[in-house]
Design a protein that fits this description.
Chain A: It is a multi-pass membrane protein. The complex is a heterodimer of chains A (about 400) and B (about 325). Chain A has about 400 residues and is mainly alpha-helical. Chain A is built from 16 helices and seven strands. In chain A, helix 6 packs parallel to helix 10, helix 11 runs antiparallel to helix 12 and helix 13 packs antiparallel against helix 16. Chain B has about 325 residues and is mostly helical. Chain B is globular and about 90 Å long.
Chain lengths: ~400, ~325
């Protein structure tokens, strides 16, 4: 009886003695790395370098990517201004002073002709002495492409006269109108971009170098040096920028050549803008210098300069680039404002600010609104740099 | 504790202002020659026999025969006593020329800050709480436009459309009738009527920056655990926002005034020139060009003083709001 009840207990289904038990755990040999096996995608992420990760993260910020493309295109256009511009920036057409933009058309009296413009007929309004331009609809003038036009020196070095588009034979082509000397606005905007855009880059390079050096010293040494540097930064930041620019710009003697003035202005703009960068370098360094690898480098006898340059700065280079991107538009705006007031660059150097200097008068806005066109690239490039900077800042810390 | 903090901040201001004054003095003195040399050259060019003895006398009178260091010392000593020096060009004390303009500059700057606050605060909160909505995108974009369009262009466009739509000329800050009259209620009203245009134009850039910063700051706070907890235990969104993250971002909001103040003063100068406001901008440029050094120097000094005071006020407000700052200020630093 007892044997019988034993037989009916839960252990009844067990295999006979000596046979292997069915086990919950696998009998396969233990593989310590098996559980951490990654899909190929994950592996790609884990093995990717920091820059690779940043690129992936940056790519997700659509607006920033578009802005990067826009910036690239605008810089490329400025680089090839000689070829893209229909005229040389100083070519005067005294018969067409302050002409409005000529529309590019494709169809003449219902028939396809290809890109052409109608020539302007000048009529002087004797009442208010305003030059009025009327299109002569009878004779279309075809535009020429990849043609020989105004002579130029490409980048001041290689002479040439090949243009993407030229005015028709015996005609004119002012796509965005002409200014008070009959110079083509489009060509001048293209040439002017070269100056305005490079000022942004050079100015930021100056403030970048200053910011890294000064911020680096303050952050690495800390203590009293840091205190002094911080006060200096506070002082420079508390100075209202434009009045000080005005003061500095008025220092430059009028006898300087326009090119020298250009460099002077760039240096001035750069000298005022390093404080933000220096501050971020400093705060980063203050936290990084406590890391073990810095102590290790110190123990091995590395000099501060080597530690800062080789070990510390590369660690937050991405942050620096992001903050530098955000300061570029400020420099461009600064140049525009200074030149607009007539204290920045001087003709014959052509920049967007110099061009806007002609639009100072309210009458200009009312009568010749196309003289304000240089503002369009200014706004576009500043917006683009801002978006790009936002994207770079998000991407700068890919591990977050 | 708070009093000690404020005292400390005011004490720090003194060396800051001293260094600033030295910087400005150097900058003003950098161009070659001085006002008297220009004057002598101009007189000769006009065919007048340059009265060298008179110029020598004037030079002596203004202390130009002394070394720059000594002149700097006298200038600063004068500034401390409220004596801003003497303008060569206008033949009058600087204070008489600029008094009214400085007041107007202060009014414009102050009104601009208030405007920036009123506009940026609600928009920043809306953008942060409705992240990635159409409202957020639209407002952020408008803000960025304000940042990207040069001040002087905004001023030109405003002038043009105000002329077309309202038929008014908006140049100037007061009605021409009140131009050379002392401050009165009627004049104040006239100023207020003209004030809104420069305020909007100058404020545009600062507002945009502030909206962006407030949005980013608030977004950070909204992700933090304490806010999630507050929401999880059933606080309605509005109350949770008011009670916690908003107070955190208020901090930064106040401290940011110190950052945007220089740009407001700068922007005011350029806009003033375009709109021909009776503020300091146009006078400053003229003074710089003619090397009227006491006029220019005292001006720049005053503008810097204005920003330093602004930073001080924002620091004090911050210390009142945030106990951590005033305690830290007393303990270490």
């Amino acid at each position: 009886m007892t044997a019988n009840t034993l037989q009916q207990n839960p252990l009844a289904g067990l295999p006979p003695d000596g046979a292997p038990l069915p086990h919950a755990a696998s009998t396969a040999p233990f593989e310590p790395y098996a559980t951490e096996a990654m899909t190929p995608e994950q592996e790609r992420v884990y093995l990717a370098s920091q820059w690779q990760l940043m690129w992936w993260k940056f790519r997700k910020h659509k607006l920033a990517v578009i802005s990067a493309v826009v910036i690239f295109v605008i810089y490329a256009m400025a680089a090839f201004a000689e070829f893209l511009a229909p005229y040389h920036y100083s070519t005067r057409n005294t018969d067409f002073i302050r002409a409005p933009g000529q529309q590019v058309r494709l169809f003449h009296e219902g028939a396809f002709v290809g890109p052409f413009v109608y020539p302007y007929k000048l009529h002087l309004n004797m009442e208010n002495l305003k030059r009025e331009y009327a299109e002569d609809r009878t004779q279309p003038q075809k535009l020429r492409f990849f043609c020989r036009g105004d002579r130029y020196d490409f980048w001041g070095l290689v002479p040439g006269n090949l243009h993407l588009v030229c005015p028709p034979d015996g005609g004119t082509f002012f796509f965005l109108g002409s200014d008070r000397l009959g110079r083509d606005m489009l060509s001048r905007i293209l040439y002017g971009g070269r100056i305005s855009l490079s000022i942004g880059l050079i100015g930021v390079s100056i403030s970048f170098v200053l910011g890294v050096i000064i911020g680096g010293i303050a952050g690495y040494y800390g203590g009293r040096v840091d205190l002094v540097v911080q006060r200096v930064i506070e002082i420079v930041q508390s100075l209202p920028h434009i009045p000080l620019w005005l003061a500095l710009a008025s220092i430059m003697p009028p006898s300087w050549s326009p090119l020298l003035v250009y460099f002077g202005i760039t240096v001035i703009l750069g000298l005022m803008d390093w404080t933000g960068l220096a501050r971020s370098v400093r705060s980063k360094l203050l936290s990084l210098r406590e890391e073990d690898y810095v102590v290790a480098a110190q123990l091995m006898g590395a000099k501060p300069r080597r530690i800062i340059a080789l070990h510390l700065v590369p660690g937050f280079m991405s942050h620096l680039i992001a903050s530098a991107t955000i300061t570029i538009p400020r420099t461009i705006l600064g140049e525009t404002a200074l030149s607009f007031l007539g204290l920045g660059l001087r003709p014959p150097i052509t920049s967007w600010g110099v061009m806007l200097n002609e639009a100072q008068n309210i009458n200009v806005v009312a009568l010749y609104p196309w003289l304000l066109y240089p503002v369009v690239p200014v706004i576009v490039i500043i917006l683009a740099f801002n978006f790009l900077g936002d994207g770079l800042r998000d991407a700068a810390d890919p591990y977050r | 504790m708070l009093l000690r903090y404020i005292l400390k901040r005011i004490l720090i201001m003194i060396p800051t202002l001293l260094v600033t004054s030295a910087l400005i003095f150097t900058v003003i003195n950098l161009p070659e020659g001085d006002y008297f040399e220009t004057m002598a050259a101009e007189m000769q060019a006009q065919g007048e026999k340059a009265d060298m003895s008179r110029i020598e006398f004037l030079k002596k009178e203004y202390g130009f025969d002394k070394p720059p260091l000594e002149r700097y010392f006298w200038w600063v000593a004068g500034l401390v006593q409220g004596d801003m020096g003497y303008s060569f060009e206008y033949q009058r004390p600087v204070r008489d020329i600029v008094g009214d303009r400085l007041l107007l500059t202060m009014i414009v700057s102050f009104a601009t800050i208030i405007f920036t606050w009123i506009v940026a605060f609600p928009i920043g909160i809306y953008s942060a709480t409705h992240q990635y909505s159409w409202g957020d995108y639209g407002l952020t974009f408008i803000g960025l436009i304000g940042l990207a369009v040069p001040h002087f262009l905004l001023a030109l466009v405003f002038m043009y459309f105000a002329n077309i739509w309202f038929g008014i000329s908006i140049g100037g800050l007061v009605d021409p009738r009140y131009l050379n009259q002392p401050m009165s209620w009627a004049k104040l009203r006239s100023v207020l009527e003209h004030l809104w245009i420069p305020v909007i134009i100058i404020g545009a850039g600062g507002t945009a920056g502030m909206i962006r910063a407030l949005r980013a700051n608030l977004l950070d706070e909204l992700q933090k655990q304490y806010y999630v907890t507050a929401r999880a235990k059933g606080l309605p969104p509005g109350k949770a926002l008011r009670k916690y993250p908003l107070r955190m971002s208020l901090n930064f909001f106040i401290s940011d005034i110190g950052d945007i103040l220089p740009s407001i003063v700068s922007g005011a100068e350029v806009v003033a020139i375009v709109l021909s406001l009776q503020t300091t901008g146009p006078l400053l440029i003229r003074a710089l060009q003619s090397q009227d050094m006491y006029l220019a120097g005292s001006f720049l000094m005053f503008l810097s003083f204005l920003t330093v005071i602004g930073v001080l006020i924002s620091d004090i407000a911050l210390a009142i709001l945030d106990p951590r700052i005033r305690l830290q200020g007393a303990a270490t630093k």
